[in-house]
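Appendix C. Worked example: Matrin-type domain-containing protein
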Amino acid sequence: MSSDDSNDTDRELQQPHMAKRRKKSYQHKFCASWLKLPEFKSWLTETKKGSTFYHCEVCQEDHTGDISAVRKHFNSKQHIQGMKSIMNVLPINQVMQNSRIVNLDNLTKEAAIRV
Ligand SMILES: [Zn+2]
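Step 2, the predicted output written as structure tokens:
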């Protein structure tokens, strides 16, 4: 399932010597490009909670963190359990696609109302 998930990790690690322990001014932000990653796109969505959060459709939870945190979540017991229980009911693709569409639809509507 995670045959080629090393690309992004590599890219992150490659960043030469970005001063990691400077001040805590940097906040991890949700990145829309994560949604295109095959291992994330079935369950990862944005959330209205804020740009530093990501939403997991499987666990129905919002979390904060960068892509490594997302990966960690993807491999967490809770998430894997959630995936399993969904798969027991319906083919995973179907479930994920449906919930994704519904979710995005809601987001769009609500965004439109707010604006
Ligand atoms: Zn999850």
